[in-house]
Amino acid sequence: MSDIRDFKPEKGDEPPNGVAPRRIAAIIAGDIAGYSRLMQQDEEGTYSRVRRIQRELIEPSILDHHGRLIKTTGDGFIATFDSPVEAVRCSIVIQQNMVGRNASMPHHSRIEYRIGVNLGDVIIETDDVYGDGVNIACRIEGIADPGEVFISGGIYEQIKRKLICGYESLGDRRVKNITDPVKVYRVLSDPAALQRPRRRETTLIGLLSLTLLIIAGGVLLYLPLPPAPAAPPADQSASSLREPEMVQLRGGSFLMGSSNDDPSEQTVHQVTIRPFSISKFPVTVREWNACFAAKACSFEAIGKDDAPVTNVNWSDAKQFVGWLAEATRKTYRLPSEAEWEFAARGGTQTKYWWGDHLQPGMANCKDCAGVAAAGQPEKVGSFRPNPFGLYDMGGNVDQWVEDCWHKNYQGAPTDGSPWTDNDCTSRVLRSGSWKNDARYVRPANRDSYDTNIRYPTHGFRLALSG
Fold it and tell me: Whole-structure pTM over 0.70, yes or no?
């Protein structure tokens, strides 16, 4: 990607008044590792694959994360974002989706991006962007490993408490044509990654432990063994656990989807739902932290106890469900997408469960009537329940379901079961959140997100079979 490493205006490109607009932006620079080799071994095939990746992954991901694609070259791209958080999230989504795309490819044919992200004061033009901020992003990308996201210290300071990832400091790096060293971090989408010892460290720790055991063995042989601690009751965890309040639904048939809104909601089709139970509220901070206290969930949630837990990815939600099912010996799970919509409609077929027009006090969203923008989720149960007695089935917090994402309902199950695939990298979200407009509050609305990326508006609720 040598043609976009340095962004310097050509003579005559300056604005007529000599003053170009500037602004602070998060810049993503992406580049394909080994592009020349790939082109040499299969020129037409590589060109076709890269164009498809740009069209199906790069461009939509940038748009979905509120960025602007500045340019693409044969093997790379430049994009700007107003938000450093969105820039890094977009980068992780691209890299994680590339893993899925490469899974069936032989190693020598894999297309792997290096991505660098920087925050800088840049010069903005209609179809380009210039300045050291861009150059640094490109240089960081140049030292990144294939499949990795490297970020500058400026980006790290902006996102370290807003995006739950692992961050590995790589120290100060000197990069070409930049006077001062640049502090660089590697982004690890698994926040526990740095807590796992590396292979060499694991070996050394094992050898050390073995040595200590051998040394201590002679002493231990002469010491009386302490009495074994009394085993806790088998149902101790279940007896002290405060289970979510569930609402039992009798099931039935309904028309799923919408013919008047987003194409992903089409085509309207009849689905028959078996009896099941669904939680009255989304899972709360208190409920999540019980799982964290049991060392079964990987992070401690922040916020008020009765607020819905947020910043949860799909894998986190499954982790909680697995813990609760084991602790209670009940078949807790995530609802299927069809079950969620059936429950959200509450027996209605209108645009919203309460009718075809917005009404005050019904949901927490960005432009919901009569709701002041709080900038955060309200405690569960703050708004009126739907006809099935369920709260927050639209607005307040996005909610994960079991299903993989499909762009429409062609081929969808009609028995209410989850629609899953073996190579699923993104899952369905329902409900919309306090940050979304009223369109997202509709029971038919559906969205998707990467399975292992956390986002501040994402939560979930539970289902129970039978």
Answer: no
